Amino acid sequence: MPDNWGFVLAAYGLAAAVLIGYWRRLARKERDLERK
Amino acid sequence: MTRALGGLAAAGLLAGLVMAFGVAPREATQGNVQRIMYLHVPSVWVAYLAFAVVFVASVVYLARRAEAADRLAHASAELGVLFTGLTIATGSIWGKPTWGTWWTWDARLTSVAILFVMYVGYLLLRGMIDERERAARSAAVLGVVAALNIPLVHFSVYWWRTLHQPPSLMKPGGSSMPPVIVAALLVNFAAFSLLYLYFLGRRVRLLGLEAEAAR
């Protein structure tokens, strides 16, 4: 079976984007609330 | 404490990547696309863990009306939805080259989709009710009921004929996988668990700040 590295990259890239996105969202919300 | 947990989670994720791409061998049947397993399986593990925490915290809230338990349930449900979404997306990406389809309505995939929708509903329910105490009570009831779906998801591959393979690690009689693959999987389980705890700590704190700001 071919290795399908594109699918591997897509899965890990998506996971990185989602997890980093969530982390940044938490940080932004914390900053906003502490400023208030 | 949360900062240290974040550092540990980052180190764990780095170790997990090294194990998945540097140590674990290329799988003989599927080739390198099987490396998605080191992401997909720990994601669903964390989703189960998060929803189990929602269940326990919801029971505690219904028994004692403790705001802390409600915040824990709320934060954990959000993370459960995040990791279930990640499980579904990575499973779909893995399914296309191995099964020839992005999605099929088999028992495992359908039961996971129902689980996902139930907890999205849980979060929507919380957002729709203005009165805090009523929102917490209604969410807690749903948090208890929705958890009944978790065993259904896990055992669906035994109870029905599915395209999805049965569990390779958490199965009766122990794992049949080579020890190096089990080790790579366990490192990623630990890393994802640490990441969940890190996110949970920050989200619970944030919910506390939001509650204070609303008073």
Please give a structural write-up.
The complex is a heterodimer of chains A (36) and B (215). Chain A is an all-alpha fold and 36 residues long. Helices cover 86% and strands 0% of the residues of chain A. Chain A has 1 helix and no strands. The longest helix of chain A has 31 residues, at 5-35. Chain A is rod-shaped. The longest helix of chain B is centred in the last third of the chain and has 36 residues, at 179-214. The two termini of chain B are 27 Å apart.
Quaternary structure: heterodimer
How many whole angstroms does the radius of gyration of chain B measure?
Answer: 18 Å
Q: What gross morphology of chain A would you assign?
A: rod-shaped
- Our estimate of the beta-strand percent of chain A is under 5%
How do you describe this structure in short?
The complex is a heterodimer of chains A (36) and B (215). Chain A is mainly α.
Question: What is the secondary structure topology, with strand pairs?
Answer:
The complex is a heterodimer of chains A (36) and B (215).
Chain A: H1 5-35
Chain B: H1 2-23, H2 37-64, H3 67-99, H4 107-128, H5 132-146, H6 149-159, H7 179-214
Helix pairs in contact in B: 1-7, 2-3, 2-5, 2-7, 3-4, 3-5, 3-7, 4-5, 4-6
Note the main attributes of this structure.
heterodimer; A: 36 residues; mainly alpha; B: 215 residues; 78% helix
